[in-house]
Amino acid sequence: MDTKDTTALSKQENLVQIGKFTLFSISAGIIQVVVFTLLEERMHLPYWPSYLSALIASVLYNFTVNRRFTFKSANNIPKAMLQLGIYYALFTPLSTWWGDALVRHGFSDYLVLGGTMVINLVT
Fold first, then answer.
1. pTM for the complete prediction?
2. 110 in a domain, yes or no?
């Protein structure tokens, strides 16, 4: 049986939730950049495995902390994981492909990473 919490949040609670979501999204972005930088600069991996590893680390972190602290949700995790999985089943191969193609055509790795992160944030 699926129990839904239908209690509406107050304006203050909504602002707190938006603030938490924003801070966790920023921290996920930092994780993505740090992992990407370590893999590219220290391990000397090409763009696509560095990007893919960084994206996965960022997504797992962001999903976990937002479910636990921002939305305080423990119910229906399989549904949320399925929705996230569907999105990233499309976004991940496409962004890896276009990112690698842009880097091979001379665009800066970090410019491509930043642009892809913005697209990920707004979609």
1. 0.83
2. yes
